[in-house]
Write a structure and sequence with these properties.
The protein has 13 helices and 20 strands. The protein has 408 residues and is of the alpha/beta class. It has a domain of 172 residues: 3-Layer(aba) Sandwich (Carbamate kinase), CATH 3.40.1160.10. An eight-stranded mixed beta sheet has the order 3-6-2-1-9-11-12-10, with helices on both faces. Strands 13-18-20-19 form a four-stranded antiparallel beta sheet, sandwiched between helices. It has a four-stranded antiparallel beta sheet with strand order 15-16-14-17, covered by helices on one side. Bound molecules: adenosine-5'-diphosphate, aspartic acid and magnesium ion.
Length: 408
């Protein structure tokens, strides 16, 4: 007997038929004697619909009230899922994030989980129930409903698996595993049987939406056995996220390519080239809880320099107003500009550690297609570039081919 957390994404609960099929899978696992916790997302499209509704009333919706609205999507699907299980004669009970007490910080729309009260869930499991928990939502110390950021149900799933010390966390989605890149962009992409935790973390952080980054972080911290599978197929082992490097096989240098259309680039032109400038620019941005990703500062010429960084597209205007109101005059910058027509493409692989020339191969491949690189950042196992968003798909396709990632 094992304790398994199964998380089902939006397309896997898109309509009553999909929910019935989910319930049938849970029934099969239950019949084998396993204890099952199900985490569900909202029906596909529902979270977007709720966000648009909010925006019809307030252009930049108040985050607390937005969370009150968007968290309802998951409340509908937990009820439906519990009903579908009952229809199969299975004891089932649903819980919202607040009812479980998935305690988060108060960063509305991108809250972090602080702790989970697993007591009631454990009791229910011991009493023979399948427990159905709403993904994506929690509650802060003052009882406010919070949400965990887009794709946050993955994180609910893995965090619950960690809190319950589950034997496995299964992420059911509309693809049958983690691929070398998004199969919607490159149909030749290949499914990976296994991927190292480090690579998955890097792919997720660079924008592969198949797993939310925080879910991978939780899996790493608590060593949760994590697998990505298709909810549309009965067979198949999906992709296992592994914690050890596999030295038995020849590893490819590059394991995958990620991309991100959600970032915008902000440039502060003509700032004095002196100590403290990076802090004066980014300090107020951090205080406003805006996440910064890539950062570039050019070497100074004639005593001034340019400073460029990227933020989430949703936060570009907020960051621009902070800089224009609080920073520009103060540091004497010539100009501040924003560009949200950019995209980031990243190649990822632990094999980079032991191979040279990967960056130059990447840059040559892009140059041969006439794709200009606007920013570059690297880590030990990743090279990321920012390009004009209109070249994104081309860049991913040519890199996928250049690094021989296609299915054999
Ligand atoms: P869910 O609603 O089940 O959480 P998501 O849409 O969030 O599903 O994530 C699954 C999608 O992730 C796939 O349909 C695919 O388009 C996309 N994706 C991006 N990168 C990858 C990758 N490397 N491997 C598999 N899928 C990927
Ligand atoms: N429903 C939320 C979203 O669309 C959470 C999730 O699907 O994981 O982002
Ligand atoms: Mg998702």
């Amino acid at each position: 007997m094992a304790l398994i957390v199964q998380k089902y994404g939006g397309t896997s609960v898109a309509n009553p038929e999909r929910i019935k099929s989910l319930a049938a899978r849970v029934a099969r696992y239950k019949a084998l004697g396993h204890q099952i916790v199900v985490v569900v997302s909202a029906m596909s499209g529902e979270t977007n619909r709720l966000i648009s509704l909010a925006k019809e009333i307030m252009q930049d919706p108040d985050p607390r009230e937005l969370d009150v609205m968007v968290s309802t999507g998951e409340q509908v699907t937990i009820g439906m899922t519990a009903l579908a299980l009952m229809e199969l004669g299975i004891k089932a009970k649903s819980y919202t994030g607040t009812q479980v007490k998935i305690l988060t910080d108060n960063a509305h729309t991108k809250a972090r989980i602080l702790s989970i009260d697993e007591h009631n869930i454990k009791q229910d499991l011991d009493d023979g129930y399948v427990v159905v928990v709403a993904g994506f939502q929690g509650v802060d110390a003052n009882g406010n409903i919070t949400t965990l950021g887009r794709g946050g149900s993955d994180t609910t799933g893995v965090a619950l698996a960690a809190a319950l010390k589950a034997d496995e966390c299964q992420i059911y989605t509309d693809v049958d595993g983690v691929y070398t890149t998004d199969p919607r962009v490159v149909p030749e992409a290949r499914r990976l049987n296994k991927i190292t935790f480090e690579e998955m973390l890097e792919l997720a952080s660079q924008g592969s939406k198949v797993l939310q980054i925080r879910s991978v972080e939780f899996a790493g911290k608590y060593k949760v056995k994590l697998r990505v599978l298709s909810s549309f197929e009965e067979e198949g082992d999906g992709t296992l996220i592994t914690f050890e490097e596999d030295n038995t096989m020849e590893q490819p240098v590059i394991s995958g390519i990620a991309f991100n259309r959600d970032e915008a680039k902000i440039t502060v032109l003509g700032v004095p080239d002196k100590p403290g400038i990076a802090y004066q620019i980014l300090g107020p941005i951090a205080e406003a809880n805006v996440d910064v990703d890539m950062i570039i500062q050019n070497t100074g010429a004639d005593g001034t320099t340019d400073f460029t960084f990227t933020v989430h597209k949703n936060e570009m205007n907020k960051a621009l107003s902070i800089l224009r109101d609080k920073v520009q005059g103060h540091i004497g910058a010539r100009e501040i500009s924003g560009d949200d027509k950019i995209a980031k493409v990243s190649i990822v692989g632990v094999g980079m550690r032991s191979h040279v020339g990967i960056a130059s191969q990447m840059f040559r491949t892009l140059a041969e297609e006439g794709i200009n690189i606007q920013m570059i950042s690297t880590s030990e196992i990743k090279i990321a570039v920012v390009v004009d968003e209109k070249y994104l798909e081309l860049a991913v396709r040519v890199l996928h081919k250049a690094f021989e990632l296609e299915a054999a």
